[in-house]
Amino acid sequence: MTLEDITQDWKPKASLALITIAVMLATFVEVLNTSIANVALKYMAGSFSISNDESLWIVTIFLIACSILLPATDWCSAKFGRKNFFLFCIALFGISATICGLAPNFEIMILGRVFQGLGGGCLIPLSQAILLESYPKAEQPKAMSIFSSGIVIAPIIGPIVGGWLTTNLSWNYVFFISIPFCIAAFIMVTMYIEDPPYLKSKTSYSFDYIGMLFLIIWIATFQVMVDNGQKNGWFDSPYIMKLGITSLIAFISLIWWELRCKNPLLDLKIFKNWNFTVGTIILTILFGVAYGSIAILPQFLQNLLGYDSYLSGLAAGPMGVGSVIAVIFTTASLNILGLRTQTVIGLIAFSLGCFMFSGLNLSIAFSNVTIPNIIIGFGLTTVIIPCTTLLFSKVSKKDMTNAASIQNLIKNVGCAVGTSSVGFLVSSYSQIYQSYLVDKLSLIHAPFSNAVTSLSSKFIQLGYDLGTAIGIAQGKIYGMLVQQSTLCAFMNAYRIYAILVLLLIPLVFLLKQFRPNE
Q: Does 1 have pLDDT greater than 50?
């Protein structure tokens, strides 16, 4: 019997339920940490006596570190054994979280976040590969529904949990909460996860140090560029321009090197797989839009409606409800609708939720945010589950770890772009609307003149002289103009997100159908 036959017939000894719990504990805690610390940054800044801008490095350095080791997942799995490497990553993540929680100064915090990112970045592709290999092909949609619910719900509840811990305990517990998850995951992976036959026989090839160097330069410069682009005026800034050029050169060099390298860090031949390529494009754009919509909502609620960080984080909670409904829906309707139809339904639902947000105003109640969030959460998960299944359906088991690593790396880039798009869209459209509306602020314009007269008379009644009352009235009206311009900018951003998602629908029909018996 050949190794291929053994691999095809291989089944894990442990039950699928125990394997799923083991890997999902690791996945959940890693994704949770991408957002849980955001709401505590100002408290950390106070503790370490640093500026708010400097505190952003606590998030930025984690995201950079997450992406650096991720492409080496396949090589490390072959070199040390995937189970051993998985355990190492969980242990490194948990120990680093402890260091972050106990950090006495900013330097130790940054060091802890670097190691936490290095350990955490590989957990998602490892978990994804283990689940896809462990489940029979006919049950892979079920595996992806469980996996997708974890990676969707975790970043949503992150700000809620982080806000509660910071408010009621301290920011340190934002990191300490990861420790019990890591301990439980370490124990369960030790007991129930095993390496399949092909991994046990897979020989480790020489490490691609040049490819890793190009990758680190690309990821680091790209992440810093998108995180700092808005506040520096993007490419009007020489600093951002240098980062952009360096990132582009490093990216082109990485692709060139990986295509000619005998044992590349990233085996780009996987892109010959049509479903993998198209599915990766769909999910990358979708995650970029999703992270943009998740980032834009708290800004809208805090800047325009006066919500605090905890309430604005809580407002995203209904997305989790939508995700749970999506898991039930996709599982129940798989044999009726099929994976491609489910994906289209999800894209339409996500787009609808964004269009609903584009019609909000400054008089909304908290409940007005709930329904669109449920629809977006439903749409997002309804796309991720079937699309991920289609994406990996034509990938062989021996290529699964490499494929999952590359897919998650590209998805991380999309998330970074999506998050940074919020500041760019809101700032740009705010300026456009302000320049349009400010022409109306002239005393020869009857509505403005009447508004100034009405407001100034109220201030005169409060004891102000005529000149001061007119000045205050004009300032109040200008403040309203800025507020309305910002509101229109948020609405436009949501419209753009909605249209982008609708444009993905034709790509879905390029995916080949999922056939479990193939």
A: no
